[in-house]
């Protein structure tokens, strides 16, 4: 602020110099042309006539004065140049007109604001504050409901975070689904200087459910009308955005426009860029009343405090009731009602330049909103066609959108230097845990992975499933990365029950998965598969974290802990439900073992019965799982007994046992210290045994492992000695932890390990 004042003082001094220096110069020169009160001509002829009155010194003085006059003229020229530069860089100039190209599109009252800004620039208001303070919090409200809208919100937020320089406070009006997804996402994203508050959209339904709405947004498309009632009473202003918005500039620029509101202006809106409200799109087209072309509500600036004083709630309700008597329903949801209110009260609107809402629907005037890429501020995909909309520059807009869609969200976890963040308990605990690790430890990276918080997007695709009422339902749980996507369709064909999958992907890979799933008839026909994206971070595959994420988000009382490379036998889902009931898993601690087999053939005629499987086993087409490389992992299943068994039988835990089991949903989580390859399942089975689970082998169940190329992690395990050393260290530490938790009973694990 002191710098601004000094700048204005310099501006004033320069102006005075420019005015007075030439005047004094000419007065001085003119006065020098008098002698004894008589005028002295400076012309050559008269100079000669009066030569007797002039001495040599007088001549030199005159010449020196002429030289000085030329110097002063040159100084004045330089001053004028500096003055023009100072005016063009004036802070008030910048605030008064952000884009000279669109100064005439500023809307209601803006030309007066511009003139007032220039006048203010020439005044000495040294106490005037900048439009947006460095650490001023910007408030953004978004209505979001469902699975698809939650994905759209993420892309919108990425574009805002990419450009922002201020703290942000998002107010999300969300249904139960969106709240679960976005609460987990932001909690695991851990972006500094970002606060999230949720408001229950379902509780607001009664406020707008009386309004018939034909728009594809449904009842949620009307909820912006009740924001004055929904948002905190002490919140004075907010930017309201649709979910299909992409920012191409710092949102603080839009927040600064609030300072241009004057009088009774309480709504900042961009003119609608289609002919919808002109009523000439088709024969007998009858839109809601609007002022001219009307206004688009994809981007709204709301002065909440003034709206409340104006009784906005009563205003829009009365207008809606009156218009619905003839219109019967809204076609464009809240936008129709906003425009009807504005038609009656045009003084409410401050018209924003159209680059703050470039509307990419068919047949719009959006191309008139920009002449260059640098003109773009906000892109609005407000057509049901979204990225397939017709526009001369749609490829550019699509690429801009896809950039944020696939942008690594982890890179947006940057601090706002100089702006204090609110205390975050989770972040502080994480920093404390990491600070206790020894960075010189050769296994530091392994230990650090245990505390890494991975950004997680639950239910990436639509999920809809109601568990069976008989309390026997079972969910198949697995995890995978991009190189195992081809297994999804086959598993869905083998298992008709619910599935919970955790996918370890980058942002770009998540979009590849989305396109793959949407192009698959098999996957799109299933609503009972929950896809949970855990975003990549760090150098290890967090296998047990992925399993825990998939386990945590099941809705059935039981789960089948499988791996993505296994195909369950046909009918296994129904067989497990019957077994759960027969073996009374509801009241006993049991882990039901599904015997595992494998084939080395990429093309396999899958056995349809136990008898057919035994025949293939005898012919060498199938083998017991890991028979060639790791027999200890499944040997306790006792395959010799299984061949002839007709009833379930119990087996005892042995060292390195890692079967695939069916358990209650309240079983222990997997231990996160084990990443990549090695001991991730072994440790879990050991803990089940420590908690006194009985291991029961099912006589008529089986699963078959399909061949695939070795994973990157198993390659590291085999080739990297330090990897194997660290895994051995982690095993020993896990066993010590087991001894502390379970006491004397856990000693057998140390003994078994030493004997193995």
TrEMBL record:
| Key words of the record | Glycoprotein, Glycosyltransferase, Golgi apparatus, Membrane, Multifunctional enzyme, Signal-anchor, Transferase, Transmembrane, Transmembrane helix
Top-level taxonomic group = Eukaryota
A molecular function GO annotation: manganese ion binding
Family membership, please give it. In the N-terminal section; belongs to the glycosyltransferase 8 family. In the C-terminal section; belongs to the glycosyltransferase 49 family.
Q: Which PANTHER family match?
A: GLYCOSYLTRANSFERASE-RELATED, XYLOSYL- AND GLUCURONYLTRANSFERASE LARGE1
User: SUPFAM superfamilies given for it?
Assistant: Nucleotide-diphospho-sugar transferases
| Principal place of residence | Golgi
Q: Where in the cell is it found?
A: Golgi apparatus membrane
Query: What organism does the record attribute this protein to?
Result: Pelodiscus sinensis
Topology with regard to the membrane? Answer: Single-pass type II membrane protein
Identify the pathway: Protein modification; protein glycosylation
Matching InterPro entries: Glyco_trans_8, Nucleotide-diphossugar_trans, Xyl/GlcA_transferase
- Please give the residue ranges the record annotates as the region Disordered: 83-110
Q: Any stretches that span the bilayer, and where are they?
A: none
Q: Which GO terms describe its cellular component?
A: Golgi membrane; neuromuscular junction; plasma membrane; protein-containing complex
Listed under catalytic activity are:
3-O-{beta-D-GlcA-(1->[3)-alpha-D-Xyl-(1->3)-beta-D-GlcA-(1->](n)-4)-beta-D-Xyl-(1->4)-Rib-ol-P-Rib-ol-P-3-beta-D-GalNAc-(1->3)-beta-D-GlcNAc-(1->4)-O-6-P-alpha-D-Man}-L-Thr-[protein] + UDP-alpha-D-xylose = 3-O-{(1->[3)-alpha-D-Xyl-(1->3)-beta-D-GlcA-(1->](n+1)-4)-beta-D-Xyl-(1->4)-Rib-ol-P-Rib-ol-P-3-beta-D-GalNAc-(1->3)-beta-D-GlcNAc-(1->4)-O-6-P-alpha-D-Man}-L-Thr-[protein] + UDP + H(+); 3-O-[beta-D-GlcA-(1->3)-beta-D-Xyl-(1->4)-Rib-ol-P-Rib-ol-P-3-beta-D-GalNAc-(1->3)-beta-D-GlcNAc-(1->4)-(O-6-P-alpha-D-Man)]-Thr-[protein] + UDP-alpha-D-xylose = 3-O-[alpha-D-Xyl-(1->3)-beta-D-GlcA-(1->4)-beta-D-Xyl-(1->4)-Rib-ol-P-Rib-ol-P-3-beta-D-GalNAc-(1->3)-beta-D-GlcNAc-(1->4)-(O-6-P-alpha-D-Man)]-Thr-[protein] + UDP + H(+); 3-O-{(1->[3)-alpha-D-Xyl-(1->3)-beta-D-GlcA-(1->](n)-4)-beta-D-Xyl-(1->4)-Rib-ol-P-Rib-ol-P-3-beta-D-GalNAc-(1->3)-beta-D-GlcNAc-(1->4)-O-6-P-alpha-D-Man}-L-Thr-[protein] + UDP-alpha-D-glucuronate = 3-O-{beta-D-GlcA-(1->[3)-alpha-D-Xyl-(1->3)-beta-D-GlcA-(1->](n)-4)-beta-D-Xyl-(1->4)-Rib-ol-P-Rib-ol-P-3-beta-D-GalNAc-(1->3)-beta-D-GlcNAc-(1->4)-O-6-P-alpha-D-Man}-L-Thr-[protein] + UDP + H(+)
**Protein name, UniProt field:** LARGE xylosyl- and glucuronyltransferase 1
Q: Name one Pfam family in it.
A: Glyco_transf_8
Q: Which BP terms from GO are recorded? A: acetylcholine receptor signaling pathway; astrocyte differentiation; basement membrane organization; behavioral fear response; blood vessel development; bone development; cardiac muscle cell development; connective tissue development
